[in-house]
Please model this.
Amino acid sequence: MTDLIKLSAADLGGLLANGSVSSVEVTRAHLDHIAAVDTDLHAFLHVAADAALATADRVDARRAAGEQLGLLAGVPIAIKDVLATRDMPSTAGSKILEGWIPPYDATVVKRLRDAHLIPLGKTNMDEFAMGSSTEHSAYGPTRNPWDQERIPGGSGGGSAAAVAAFEAPLALGSDTGGSIRQPAAVTGSVGVKPTYGGVSRYGAIALASSLDQVGPVSRTVYDAALLHDVIGGHDPLDSTSLTDPWPSMAAAARAGLADGALTGLRIGVVKELNGEGFQAGVTQRFTETLALLAAAGAEISEVSAPNFEYSVAAYYLILPAEASSNLARFDSVRFGLRENPTDGPVTIERVMAATRDAGFGPEVKRRIILGTYALSTGYYDAYYGSAQKVRTLIQRDFDAAFEKVDLLVSPSAPTTAFKFGEKLADPMAMYLNDITTIPANLAGIPGMSLPMGLAPEDGLPVGLQVMAPAKQDARLYTFGAAVEQLLEAHWGHTLLSRAPALAPVEMFASEEGVI
Amino acid sequence: MKKAELMDFDKALELYEPVLGFEVHVELNTKTKMFCGCANEFGQGANTNTCPTCLGLPGGLPQVNRKAIESSIRLGLALGCDIAEASRFARKNYFYPDTAKNFQTSQYDEPIAFNGSLTIELESGRQVTVEIERAHMEDDAGKLTHKGGATGRIQGADYSLVDYNRGGVPLVEIVTQMIEGGEADSPEIGKTYVAAIREIVKALGVSNARMEEGNVRCDANVSLRPRGSNILGTRTETKNVNSLRSVERAVRYEIQRQAALLSAGGTITQETRHWHEDTGRTSAGRPKSDADDYRYFPEPDLVPVAPSREWVEELRATLPEPPAARRKRLQADWGFANLEFQDVVNSDLLDAVEATIAAGASAQAARKWWTGEVARLANVAGVAADSLVQPHQVAALIELVEAGTLTDRLARQVLEGVIAGEGTPLEVVDSRGLAVVSDDGPLIAAIDEALASQPDVLAKIRDGKVQAAGAVIGAVMKAMRGQADAARVRELVLERAGSAE
Model:
């Protein structure tokens, strides 16, 4: 029998639809693999094995009864812990929410359930999505399946690692400054940040409201498209949700497989997101990919986005400012951790302070302090105000670029996966890691990362970032599927098929005998 | 500092010029809350009308209530404001447990309505125009109840309970410009201004407008400027003054208190103050300074509100007649003296009297019944007069009196019956058998009997001492259990006394 966990979501959906396998079998295969490898990997904060099997059983029963279900019905999925789930803890990687089970489902989670996907559990992340390595998770880091001494990216390292390590064919992520795309890049998986407003944020625990966007994580572009179709579209509960009708992303991805899909496509290489400061092997794979694209008929040109150099600075004012306000609600009054002061009077202010002191990790505190300061009277114009102006300039850079080209490309991250601890002591180095992904969030445009090879110097995955104008997410999928097909034909295999096999954690009976 | 706590009001005005400012919060009576679909009502048990959004749960997001925008625009228009072409919500950040998100979603530099004015008329006839700086939208906080401790305040409480049913209820905050030149009228200006706001929101139908239930709440800012100086004094903000009379008292109290403090060489602390209805005093709340840092920034979870000019004009066309103009018109139509009219207005009975007159009653009778017996019964029952009985029933009652079917005394009994739910006035008349006895037969019999039993009175009447008839009339009325027209009885007594001769 085929190794169910190695199949794409689309293929699993096909086998489920024609009755070759049951959802219970597929779900159990994934749960078994999680049990075998996740002790080391730590992609999951919570595995809902019983609930997943029960849900799978119900989906099988519906199919048995002759119901026509969606393309992903019965396919397992991992959910980033930033999303509210009414039957699983939702901690956003923070101690302050340890054990908190929301009384409601995020809209995207509800849509998963309505499409009969099987939630396997919740994935690890940097606390409140603040980080690029999952090292800021209050529950310990996730390891990169390619090299367990290295980070899986962040904040959504758990979702990316789960998908790359075949623990789940699909996952949900959230991307505020690259939290879907950068983990995808360093784990050799696919991740998409949709257009701002394209996917509901209702029930996504907010980091920075004007930047956050929920999106799909997968191993293939087509799988991401299928998942995008499930979660996307207007939600009246999110006021920033777009009311535009969306084309089928899956259809767009299928269009990319046609002959000549790349012919005449105008591809812009962002001058400021390439070259200096980028790892040699990353640049090399990027250059090779551009050559392949040109050979396939795409028109490659360089475009400049002069204001991108201010993007990290602007981002690290806007994000902490919004986060400082979004995270104010964690105060012990209605939910989550409550910590009384160890000495002195127990007043509400002191309980709030003690709770926040005990419940938030250092990176969260750092950003709350930064944001509180940036919004203070007398500093607002200089910091938050200026940052918003930079944001407008970056949007104009994109507008100008998209007048000349259909899509923009860059490496998804300046480097391959770095080692644990490498950037932990230097927040600026960690922040600069997001330089490639941040502009898309500031402008609200969609971005995708897909694998473009392994860096020769370390054998680790390198990601290609593709960006399209706002609301043109479909264009990403068409191009992404075409590039994926082109690269895999060139390599003769998928990238993830080259990932090292993870050693299962073996369980031994005691050598001294068991009773 | 203990010595003279208050300065004589006239003396205070000799030395200082009061400068006022008011912030009136109006709770809108929308069906649902400002930013979520929860019902905008209380009294169903604590925290029952709540959801992830108004509870500030992680992941909750706001959605703007269109009806609240509509009400805010209508209120802004009624206050003569400009309506912003683009208006934005902003977060006002501060930690307090009644504010679920630990920020209030309010408006900062882009309010929905601004630059209005409202002319009010004091009892003296003096007209004062209050400039409105802005009217902005925001969400209300939950309700805290502090348990244990002597004061019912958070300090010293053993624990506190919080009910978020009110959290997220839509408010419009109306902020005035500085009001100068109020002088000795300042307390009355406060009262009259808040009354005018209340009247407007009620006429618009955008709020239940019950101050006692907190639908309309006033924060009164008072500062004193020494005569001859052009420098403003430090202000205090007396919070949540929740009756018209209290607004007047609180302003007067603050003028007297600040004057005493300043003239004794003290300084005013910029602070919020609490109004105590029972003692008629204010007490220090928390210090407040212009440096209070709420770290306002545009609410990123909401898009700007950009009401189209067409919509604004449509809403303008729905505005009712301004209450002040309506009052002038009604007083002229009804021919009421100032005091009579004030009595109706102050009792909040304008609508009821108008409806009663429309139902056919005479203006004076409608006024007399509503401000008299109905108001008295309402006062006893502790409810609003217009909730006790319908205008058309009062009109029907008046018609029965004017037709001679009921005396005033009988009519009061009928009114009680109507209020008790016994039916229309006519039905109560029938069921209680309360109609005036208009058939002379039973009256004559009773009169003859009374005259016969009081021969001395009969003699006096015959001697021309007609005032002696009173005793007989009283006896007859008693015998008839009040169901007789006293004037007719008098006529008949004199007639019978004469004929018995």
In short: The longest strand of chain A covers residues 447-454. The mean pLDDT of chain A is 96.
